[in-house]
Amino acid sequence: MRIAVAGGTGQAGAAAVAAARERGHEVVVLARSAGVDLVRGTGVAAALEGVEVVVDASGVQGKDDPTAFHEAVTRSLTTEGQRAGVRHVVVLSIVGCDRVHGFALYAGKVAQERATARGGIPFTIARATQFHEFSRQVFGFAKAGPVHFAPSGRLQPVAVREVGARLVDLAEAAPVGGRAADFAGPREESLRTMVRAYAKAAGERGVVLPLRVPGGLGRAQRDGSLLPGPDAVRGAQTFSEWIAALPAKA
Ligand SMILES: NC(=O)c1ccc[n+]([C@@H]2O[C@H](COP(=O)([O-])OP(=O)(O)OC[C@H]3O[C@@H](n4cnc5c(N)ncnc54)[C@H](OP(=O)(O)O)[C@@H]3O)[C@@H](O)[C@H]2O)c1
What we know:
Elements: E1 2-6, H1 11-22, E2 26-30, H2 44-47, E3 53-56, H3 66-84, E4 88-94, H4 104-117, E5 123-128, H5 134-141, E6 143-144, E7 147-151, E8 154-155, H6 160-172, E9 178-179, E10 183-184, E11 189-190, H7 191-201, E12 207-211, H8 215-223, E13 233-234, H9 239-244
Parallel strand pairs: 1-2, 1-3, 3-4, 4-5, 5-9, 7-12, 10-13
Antiparallel strand pairs: 6-7, 8-11
Helix pairs in contact: 1-6, 3-4, 5-7
This protein binds NADP nicotinamide-adenine-dinucleotide phosphate.
Residues 7-13, 30-33, 36-39, 57-59, 61, 92, 94, 109, 128, 130-131, 134 line the site of NADP nicotinamide-adenine-dinucleotide phosphate.
C-alpha cells in the first residue's frame, strides 16, 4: 500500500520508513528536506496523491511552539488527506503526555491527539515511551559548560527501530478510533543511570552531576507518570543492549 510518513527523516519516522519499505509498501516522505512543509502546507496535496495511510511522526524543532506546530501539521494532513482519500491516520504520541502539566512539548502532543480526533479521517493514536536515544539528548542539552546533569526519573525506554515497526503494524491494521495500547521497552530504567551509562559508553569526558528537575515535567518523571500502563505492548531491546551496541567515541 502507499503510506506517507510525516517526519520520515526523523528518528522515529526514518524507522517507520525503513520498516514499511522492508514490508514492500510504497513510501512517501513528508518533511521539509523532502520538499513538503506541513506547517505552511506547501507540497502536501501533491505528495498525498494516491496515499491510503498517513503515519505522523513529525516533531517540532527549534523554538517553535509545539501546540501551534502540531495543530498546523495535523490541519495540513487531515485537510489534504481527506481530499486525497486517505483512509487512516496513525499519530505517534508520548505515553503519559496528558499527565504532565506545564511542559509545552507534552501539551503539544495532547493538542496533536485532539486535533487528529477532530480531523475527519479514521485514526489511531500510537503512544510510545522515550527512545533509548533520549539518554543522548538529555546528556546533550542538560549541561552548563563542561558539566552535564543527569535528572532523576522513572522511564521505560524503547528501541526506535521497534517503534517504527509498531507504527507500520498499526498502519496495516484497521483504525482504532482512539488510543492503541501503549508501546514501551521491556523494562523500567532510571533516567539518571541512563544518562551516566550513555556518557560512559560514548567516551564523553565531562562531569555528570545529579539534577532534580523542577516543575511538572520533573514531577512526572519522578512519580512514574511517564511509565506505560499494564496492558502495554513491549519491545525487545533493553537499554543495556542499546548501550552495548553504541560505537565508542574515538
Ligand atoms: N524522542 C523520543 O524519545 C520520543 C518518544 C515518543 C514520541 N516522540 C514523538 O515522536 C515524534 C517524532 O520524534 P523524533 O524524535 O523522531 O523527531 P525528530 O527526529 O526531531 O524528527 C522530526 C521530523 O519532523 C520533520 N519536520 C519538522 N518540521 C516539519 C515541517 N514544518 N514540515 C514537515 N516536516 C517537518 C523533520 O524533517 P525536516 O526537518 O526535514 O522538516 C523530521 O523528519 C515527535 O512528535 C515526538 O514528540 C518522541
